[in-house]
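Name: General secretion pathway protein GspG
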Amino acid sequence: MKRATRGFTLIEVVITMALIALLASIAAPLTETVVRRGKEQELKTALHQLRDALDAYKMAADAGHIEKSLSSSGYPENLSVLVDGVRDLRDVKGGKIYFLRRIPRDPFAPPQQDIAEVWGLRSYDSPADDPRSGEDVFDVYSQSRLVGLNSIPYSEW
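Structure predicted for General secretion pathway protein GspG:
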């Protein structure tokens, strides 16, 4: 007596592979969008942290808690000052005020780029539509040339 062999026919295997390929082609752009949204959220968070630290520095300078020359705008001369700290004029023991633990990285910047060069810097004297660096750091922006999912370039966030 002959037993029937069990298994899949060639047609069944081809149809299964075609369905898997179709599902993978649908899922690939979706995962790319999810990854991009995650990077956009990181960029928003980094910009928020940096801008909050710049504002806190300006408030401390205006309140007389840190040294400020008469000719300065009250903003830091570079981003490193926010991490390194500045002398607190209220503390007789010479303590410092720190505004950031570390400078966050732009998620759209090349990973090999130095953290000091990741962000575009806008000085207080620079117009918003043409940001330029100068004697102080009034604002930061992404130097990425990519456009966000909301159709706004990352450099304008």
